[in-house]
Amino acid sequence: MKLVKRYFAAGLVSVLAAMPVWAEAKPLAVGVEFNLTKLDPTNINDTLTMTSLRTVYQGLLGFDKDYKIIPLLAERYEASSDAKEFTFYLRKGVKFHDGTDFNAEAVKFNLDRLANPENKLSRRVLISMLDHVDIVDDYTVKIYLKEPYGALPSSLAHPGTMMISPAAIKKYGKDIDRHPVGTGPFKFKSWSGDIFEVTKNENYWGKVADVDGVVIRSVPESGARFAMLQAGELQFVPDFPSELVEVAKKIPTLDVTTAPSIYEFYTSMNVMKKPFDDIRVRKALNYAVNKEAFCKVVLNGYCEPATSSIPPLLRFYTNVGQYEYNPEKAKQLLADAGYANGFETEVFSRNSTAVIRAMQFLQQELAKVNVKVTVTPLEAGVEADRVWGAETPEKSDVQLLYSGWSASTGDADYGLRPLFASESFPPNLYNTSYYKNEKVDQALAEGIKTADDTKRAEAYKIVQQAVFEDAPWIFMGEKQNISVKTKKLSGVYMLPDGGFSVDGAKFTGE
């Protein structure tokens, strides 16, 4: 069987070489708007927690700032021409933070654990096509798939497949989500609600960090995060509040960066609950919400109205159109569905300033068509429990859920399957609309059965068109990434998925 080799450019690896450190080493303080949820990367469904854990954990592959795949714990890989067999050649001399060797046995242990349905790990979808893993030698593994899947390298670059110390998993069991042990440039120190702290890994296999550690602090209120940045209590604020950008640009000690993202905002409607089981109601709510105004009011223009269920930067995106703003059409559809006088419902999400503003905007828009919406902001852990605590659709109390998703593989499969496949109902994955369409399920299955890009594109076009027509979401907007840092800090940046990297953080002269 012909092998297609994948070697990484030497320049990408050279950044790992040791360099002299001239700047003062001190902890880096990062300000974020939400709390972390739990610390097992294979069982997490929010970008913030996953990207924070990139400080501790690493995968076989990763992404650079332009979202190109780069080597991490694997130096290179080979793929068979039918995309069913992948051979990974591992980096030697790497140890987990607890002293356990990173080797082929550790890779097999991790992939077998993630793929085992009995473990009920939410990121299993990333390697659901896995058949088995063979150990070729101490530093070579061969991965066999049940069906062709050309996007496997993207899945293995996703933080949900990062490598955990097998010894730590055996020691802590399910409590591994409180005791992370990886191979990364930082070692876990503590996590207490709104503060996650890591310290420099002096024995790191690559370039040892220039900062002593990283403190990731949750500060939900936008103004408070900005004030702490100005006061020097924070040095980096990824996902900076859009309403404060113009003010930040005027402060000479700060750097503001904006860039396109692969993050899309939406409001899921539980199609198994009345009145959202009626497609006329779902379409009515789409016509009732002004997406242009959403981008201006909620994100201060750092946004574009959604034109599909995935954003344009994702591979295999198709522009399927928009529901134009038409309140009169919305009222007519509601009347046709038997809700001429509207109805009452609830939207819930997290409790940050930006999210509350988005839910209040939704509340005001829907009030114009006589839909009364109660806004319920929740702390991150409470919101997660409310979404994931329902083991069956019947037990879910989701009516409207304001949320967002970034497919951290860069591929349409992970932008669609976790959100619209019928197998992805919570607690398995994030189909919080409880949406089911056999045509969608079939097309999603076809999309991962082939390595042919033309066939994959057609499959995902079918999915995007069907989802737009069925409207299980109120399609909102695609945001721009905004980050602000102090000018004395370099080497930090946001990733297109809304995450961030601090591995290269360095403070320059005082």
TrEMBL record:
GO terms for cellular component: ATP-binding cassette (ABC) transporter complex; outer membrane-bounded periplasmic space. Residues 68-423 form the Solute-binding protein family domain. Residues 1-23 form the signal peptide. GO terms for molecular function: peptide transmembrane transporter activity. SUPFAM superfamilies: Periplasmic binding protein-like II (SSF53850). One of its GO terms (biological process) is dipeptide transport. It comes from the Bacteria. Coiled coil: none annotated. InterPro entries: Peptide/Ni-bd, SBP_5, SBP_5_CS, SBP_5_dom. It holds the Pfam family SBP_bac_5. Transmembrane segments: none annotated. Its main location: periplasm. It is found in: Periplasm. Keywords: Periplasm, Signal, Transport. Belongs to the bacterial solute-binding protein 5 family. Part of the ABC transporter complex GsiABCD involved in glutathione import. Binds glutathione. This is Glutathione-binding protein GsiB. It comes from Bartonella apis.
